[in-house]
Design a protein that fits this description.
Elements lengths: L2 H18 L4 H14 L5 H5 L5 H18 L2 H12 L4 H16 L4 H19 L7 H11 L8 H12 L11 H22 L9 H4 L6 E6 L10 H4 L1 H4 L3 E7 L2 E3 L13 E5 L2 H11 L1 E3 L10 H6 L3 E8 L10 H4 L1 H5 L2 E7 L2 E3 L13 E7 H7 L5 E3 L13 H17 L4 H14 L7 H5 L2 H20 L1 H13 L4 H16 L4 H19 L3 H13 L9 H9 L4 H27 L6
Antiparallel strand pairs: 1-4, 1-5, 2-3, 2-4, 6-9, 6-10, 7-8, 7-9
Helix pairs in contact: 1-2, 1-22, 2-22, 4-9, 4-19, 4-20, 4-22, 5-6, 5-7, 6-8, 6-10, 7-8, 7-27, 8-10, 8-27, 9-25, 9-26, 10-28, 19-20, 22-25, 23-25, 24-25, 24-26, 24-28, 25-26, 26-28
């Protein structure tokens, strides 16, 4: 077969894997890398080159730098400003969020920024009684827009810079498109402050987790009668939680409350069990096990959440993170209760609530789990990389005395990269070493800080770009675009690339989109005598500015469940913002960088 046909075949298979989520994106990228080597479309050296590429190394270093700044409490200090000056007017919300969050996004990974600010913004919402749906999408959009201020802001920027170097145009300077991004950031902020906030849904913020997850009909009290078959058995031996879709949250015996773990607790007549389960399962237990359902007293004067929080028990929301090992597994497969000593009461995905048969539901990135268990277990969850607990961490547990050192290291990395000929990868790795030497990070924390799924995604996709170039696929696509848009002016051709990239990035990952389209854009520019940088910049910006779906960008997915959004909410708010970016970015690129290459 022709190499160009095989390359397009592999690309098509990759596209299907991304769209239908047959495999996680990083595993898809690794499969693509291996397939390209097996088909002979790239040499083994070319196939493995992504792991040693300076872009991959830089991204890895930036994850560590971001973690160092976050672990010292530097970002949390800024969150105090947000809570103090956020005000109550929607326009002020947007402007203050932009002023506080924007500077951090220039050098800290977007996912790390949103991870820290999610509980802060949720707390702000409750304090000021602002619907959380009015704040979460703006948090994501502001982070996306701010991430373009420097090359270090996102992995996509670093990848585009590496591709530019591979294509012979040289790597981007760290402030290469700062002027352009400050303009788009300001325009996006003005849009959110004037129009965007009016398009956001207004969904009432619940005063308690039990109300927010609709648990009134799913958490009940049952009493063990003397005739019950459970008398004398332990919770484990009774297999009540295995036979029925219920979870025992607490046992009350002679007014004494016994929290989890409960597996070895012997049940007695008169014991009251606080259980999570649907009405149908409770009726089955009543008839089959000799239990009686007590009147619904826990949701009267005192909420279920307040009741269990009064003792050693607690409840919290925890989000499944992007690189979590929980993704794709069910609660039953994970033995979640035994693993974390907590019980999942409900799962939220946007507006969707799962409260029954949860043990059979594969977990996804962005899922919000309502968990209940001993408060010490909930504190333990905060240290887990698998889950993000939606509760502000105690700042005393952070290395706050190192905050200014971490910030200084971040400024050092940016300054040296901007003022010396040293590659960004070298300055970023220097920052990593300084983070460890100064105690901002412990040596063992380096490896936990890296988003290995992103690293493997980048390393796996690099050979595809090489195969596209080697096989002539890039040249073929460029020729088709020249035939279609050859009669267009430079402005309309840039606009065409922006729109094309923006649509593709909603389907693929933004990194995969840059791998595919940036070399094509550079080739088209070269063939038509335009400035290749102008076309590479328009692809880079369009790939990162993903606003129209909750799955187009990871920060959108993170706020999807927390804000209680519907899928179309992102289209309603993000569609006009994407249109605004498509209108202003091409002329700004022409104005700042020129349409024709400098002589």
């Amino acid at each position: 077969m022709e190499p160009i046909f095989l390359t397009f075949l592999v690309t098509g298979l990759m596209l299907l894997c991304f769209v239908f989520e047959w495999l996680p994106p990083d595993i898809t990228a690794l499969c693509v890398m291996v397939l390209l080597m097996l088909l002979g479309l790239v040499t083994p050296e070319e196939g493995l080159s992504g792991f040693s590429n300076s872009a991959t190394i830089t991204v890895m270093a930036m994850f560590i730098l971001s973690s160092g700044i976050a672990r010292t409490g530097a970002i949390q200090m800024a969150s105090e400003v947000l809570l103090k000056w956020g005000g109550k007017r929607p326009a002020r919300h947007m402007l203050v969020m932009g002023a506080v969050i924007g500077p951090f996004t220039a050098i800290i990974n977007n996912v790390a920024i949103v991870s820290v600010f999610l509980p802060v913004v949720e707390n702000w919402s409750r304090q000021r009684r602002i619907p959380v749906s009015k704040l979460m999408i703006p948090l994501s959009y502001i982070t996306i827009l701010g991430g373009m201020i420097t090359v270090l802001g996102t992995s996509t920027n670093v990848l585009a810079s590496g591709l530019s170097k591979e294509l012979g145009y040289g790597a981007f300077d760290i402030f290469q498109f700062t002027t352009l991004s400050l303009c788009t950031f300001a325009a996006g902020l003005v849009y959110m402050a004037t129009i965007g906030h009016r398009l956001l849904p207004k969904r009432k913020t619940s005063d308690s987790l039990s109300q927010g997850y609709g648990l009134k009909d799913y958490v009940s009290e049952v009493v063990i009668t003397p005739r019950s078959s459970l008398v004398g058995q332990t919770v484990r031996s009774s297999q009540i939680q295995r036979i029925y879709d219920v979870d025992i949250l607490e046992i009350i015996h002679d007014d004494n409350h016994f929290p989890q773990p409960l597996a070895d607790k012997t049940l007695s007549a008169g014991d009251i069990l606080l259980v999570r389960g649907g009405r149908e399962d409770l009726l089955k237990i009543r008839d089959g096990q000799g239990l009686e359902i007590l009147p619904d007293v826990q949701f009267g004067q005192k909420s279920w959440q307040a009741e269990i929080s009064a003792g050693e028990e607690g409840a919290a929301e925890a989000m499944v993170m992007a690189d979590s090992n929980l993704i794709g597994s069910t609660l039953k497969d994970l033995r979640f209760r035994q693993r974390y000593n907590c019980t999942v009461l409900a799962i939220r995905r946007g507006q969707e609530l799962v409260r029954e048969r949860m043990g059979k539901v594969p977990l996804r990135f962005g899922d919000l789990l309502l968990v209940q268990g001993p408060k010490q277990s909930l504190v333990g969850l905060q240290t887990s990389k698998e889950l993000l607990v939606m509760e502000q961490r105690n700042i005393e547990n952070l290395r706050r005395n190192k905050a200014w050192i971490a910030i200084a290291i971040g400024i050092f990395v940016v300054s040296v990269a901007a003022t010396t000929p040293l590659p960004i990868a070298v300055t970023a790795l220097s920052g990593v070493v300084l983070m460890v030497l100064t105690g901002c990070l412990k040596p063992g924390e380096l490896y936990r800080a890296v988003r290995w799924d992103v690293v493997f995604l980048l390393a796996g996709l690099f050979p595809l770009g090489i195969a596209m170039e080697n096989s002539g696929a890039t040249e073929f696509l460029a020729k088709q675009l020249i035939d279609v848009g050859g009669n267009l002016s430079g402005y309309w051709l840039l606009t065409l690339f922006f729109v094309l990239t923006a649509l593709v990035t909603e389907i693929l990952s933004n990194n995969a989109t840059v791998i595919l389209l940036l070399p094509v854009a550079a080739k088209v520019a070269q063939e038509l005598g335009y400035n290749p940088f102008a076309f590479m910049f328009v692809v880079t910006f369009a790939a990162s500015n993903s606003f129209m779906t909750p799955i187009g960008y990871q920060t959108n997915t993170m706020v999807y469940g927390t804000g209680g959004y519907r899928f179309l909410d992102f289209m309603r708010v993000g569609g006009p913002l994407s249109l605004l970016m498509a209108v202003i970015t091409p002329p700004l690129i022409i104005l700042i960088y020129g349409l024709v290459p400098p002589s």
